[in-house]
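Progress note, sequence design subtask.
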């Protein structure tokens, strides 16, 4: 029965993911704000109907794709929290959060390359369409900081930077350390676009770390036999990465004052204001199980001089805890931390590097659980572990055999064969 259900569930997942990913990517662009928004009611109706279809696909996926009660516990927990969140937060747009987690459940065992290329190609089609739209005057190119920072059809420059970073991460997942010269050229071009036009400092830093890490894992790592202690330390740093950045951002936010040391660091620019606004939110609103409504201003689609009384929670960890509550914050942390633990256990060290960079980016940006940006959450459910691919009788010798699962870069070998 499981085999019979795998193909229809896969088709349903790819179709649903394609709609929700493209919809949310579209919403992040001025193309939607100025032209597609006139059909909002139609989009909303389609969205709501497909949301209920997604619930059904998620339930069926739990029944047929997750083996054993133990493996069903996490997806059941995700399903329960997502549905309860929608029940207690009766806001239509809030379904986007439940959609993200329901898609995670349905991603179980799907082909990571089909998903990856779908995301990469569709994402760049939207970015190029938005860019061309700004060049021909069809939509405005919003600029900030006296015109020095361009959004090129996306509602805010940093959102554009996040899109480019996310799509680059997806390419890295697809390649899994096996890069061609043109892949590195692409990453260098992405960094150049950021530094010249977008000027998102943390985004550029994350792009550079992604580039440097990819180069290391492809050309340097295979030639070295790392000490087991170094490997264990790397595993611990990666597994605790999301927890570390959550604690760090909470500490910097809660202790923020005009005299804080971080406020004296000039090159941080607007990053400092994110801690200030977070502190203001903690001072004026409670932390609850299902989140608190906080009125915000300045979510994009306006010129810099048109934004008055700017108030927006950009840090993912702070935003999730305050706006979405302990339930969603805890669920997001469990999903991403479990992903890192899964990769460490199965020696997917390159994928762990990518997720750590994503955790760093979330310390400044607010896109951790958005379908159009938080694509890294999906890979945990798609990448197989050795227990899923190796018979029980062969587990003792698994480390000496070529893996049949999605390829990894281990401390003992270079990239192994593709699936």
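Output:
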């Amino acid at each position: 029965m499981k085999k019979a259900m795998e193909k229809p569930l896969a088709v349903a997942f790819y179709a649903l993911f394609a709609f929700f990913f493209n919809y949310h990517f579209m919403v992040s662009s001025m193309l939607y704000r100025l032209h597609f928004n006139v059909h909002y009611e139609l989009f909303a109706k389609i969205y709501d109907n497909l949301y209920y279809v997604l619930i059904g696909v998620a339930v069926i996926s739990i029944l047929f794709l997750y083996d054993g009660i133990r493996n069903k516990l996490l997806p059941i927990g995700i399903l329960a929290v997502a549905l309860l969140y929608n029940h207690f937060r009766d806001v239509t747009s809030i379904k986007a959060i439940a959609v993200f987690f329901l898609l995670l459940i349905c991603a179980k065992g799907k082909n990571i390359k089909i998903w990856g290329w779908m995301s990469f190609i569709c994402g760049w089609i939207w970015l190029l369409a938005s860019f061309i739209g700004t060049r021909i005057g069809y939509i405005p190119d919003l600029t900030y900081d006296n015109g020095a920072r361009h959004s090129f059809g996306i509602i805010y420059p940093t959102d554009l930077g996040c899109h480019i970073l996310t799509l680059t991460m997806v390419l890295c997942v697809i390649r899994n350390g096996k890069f061609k010269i043109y892949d590195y050229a692409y990453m260098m071009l992405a960094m150049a676009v950021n530094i010249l036009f977008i000027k998102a400092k943390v985004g550029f830093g994350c792009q550079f770390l992604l580039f440097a890490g990819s180069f290391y894992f492809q050309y340097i790592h295979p030639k070295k036999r790392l000490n087991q202690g170094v490997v264990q330390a790397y595993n611990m740093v990666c597994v605790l990465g999301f927890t570390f950045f959550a604690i760090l951002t909470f500490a910097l936010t809660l202790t923020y004052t005009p005299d804080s040391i971080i406020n004296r660091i000039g090159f941080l620019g607007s990053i400092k204001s994110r801690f200030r606004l977070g502190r203001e939110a903690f001072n004026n609103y409670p932390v609850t199980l299902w989140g608190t409504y906080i009125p915000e201003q300045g979510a994009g689609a306006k010129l810099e001089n048109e934004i008055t009384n700017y108030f927006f929670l950009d840090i993912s960890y702070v935003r999730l805890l305050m706006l979405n509550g302990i339930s969603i914050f805890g669920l997001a942390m469990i999903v991403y931390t479990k992903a890192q633990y899964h990769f460490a256990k199965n020696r997917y060290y390159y994928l762990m590097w990518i997720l750590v960079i994503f955790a760093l980016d979330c310390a400044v940006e607010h896109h951790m659980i958005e379908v159009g940006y938080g694509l890294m959450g999906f890979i945990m459910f798609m990448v197989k572990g050795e227990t899923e691919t190796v018979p029980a009788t062969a587990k003792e010798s698994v480390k000496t055999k070529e893996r049949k699962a999605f390829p990894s870069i281990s401390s003992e070998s270079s990239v192994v064969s593709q699936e």
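Residues 2-248+301-400 form one domain. Work on this subtask will continue into the next period as scheduled.
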